[in-house]
Amino acid sequence: MTRILRTFRFLVIFVILGLTTGCWDRNEMDDLALVMASGIDLTEDGQLEITLQIALPTGIPSAVQSGGSGKKSVIVISASGKNTSEVTGKLQQQLSRAIFFGHRGVIIFGEQFARHGINQVVDTFTRFPESRSNSYVLTTYGGTAKEILNTPYQLELIPGIGINKIQSSKLSFPVKIDEFLNALSSQDRSPVTAAIRVINKGTDKETFTIDRAAVYHRNQLSGYLSSDELKLLRWWTGRGHHLRFTVQVEPENEQYGGTVGVELLQSGMKMHLVIKNDLPEIKVSLHATVRAIDNDSKLDLSKVNHMKRVETLLSKKIQSEAESMLTHVQKVLKSDIFGIGEEVHIEYPYAWKKMKDEWLDIFPEVPVTVDAHIKIERTGKTHSPAHKEKTD
């Protein structure tokens, strides 16, 4: 009986202890500074400058809130130092709450920092347990990350959320930090990110736009793709949703601009790869079905010969622009952002073993040919332009 009583007492004490324990390492929301976006720049004296965009409690959007309001929704703080640990410590000294990166959805590299090389901060993204692997990474074009994070955005209470939503849409070129780091450590693909810049600077319409791509050679920014080149890169990488192209089909005159504009409905890319004389040869086919969205010419798209003319001119235009982009990437930027090395690795693993260590030196000399095939599937409710004069 005594033994049973002792066992019962032990169980009661054990249960009570279990109920009275708390979360020893818990952090209340009221004690956290929620970082929504961060940026990294290089100062003139070669130090790191980190900028944090932190949500204020009144600025965190609820289910019924949208757009701007009269209240300040974020604070932006910056500090500089030798490494991320030192800078983070200085940033924490400016805040009464603990810095928390668990909600960070955007990481921005300043142009000068990216050109200098990003190795100094890469370890932080992989080692720090709070860092999210699905944060979007961008590079500034013609400015600093600090400028971007201090730029207002009217459609969202928190600008960092605005950048995150743009990148998560099908109309952008999203690259997450884990994808970027995988490409950075890979031998068969070079890193590339979307490029963000400030527009309408110094006016009441100041905001940011994401309309270019930043190309990296190993761990350094080597240059940018233009808006037109970015469209083709999106197409190449399977992100061609709602891309728009305009082609000149007739000479411009007083009445007509001579152009037809189309939007991609379905698009794809096929790559054919062979090895000749120990060097890859690539043939790329870009294909798409499109719908006409404007017609500022005398052509009537209901007529087969007129439609074929537009399809032919559009195919030639896209082929020419794709060839120009390839020349720029291969000869100037010298970075395999297309994953051609990855295809060689998959299809010819033994050949890849011989060339993988020198791939970035081989890639600029790889012959790549492109052809494009465009088919107009929809012409809209009208065939000839609405402003065309009707004749009896």
**What's the N-to-C terminus distance?**
114 Å
SSE run:
HEEEHEEHHEHHHEEEHEEEHHHHE
Mean pLDDT over the residues:
88
Q: Largest sheet, described in full?
A: 9 strands, mixed
The share of residues in extended strands comes to: 25-35%
The beta-strand count equals 13
Pfam family, one: Spore_GerAC
Keywords: Germination, Lipoprotein, Membrane, Palmitate, Signal
InterPro entries: GerAC_N, Spore_GerAC-like, Spore_GerAC-like_C, Spore_GerAC_C_sf
Membrane topology: Lipid-anchor
Descriptive notes:
With 392 residues, this protein is α/β, with parallel strands linked by helices. It folds into two domains: 31-57 and 71-225; 228-391, GMP Synthetase, Chain A, domain 3 (2-Layer Sandwich), CATH 3.30.300. It has twelve helices and 13 strands. The longest helix has 30 residues, at 304-333. The relative contact order is 0.10. The mean pLDDT is 88.
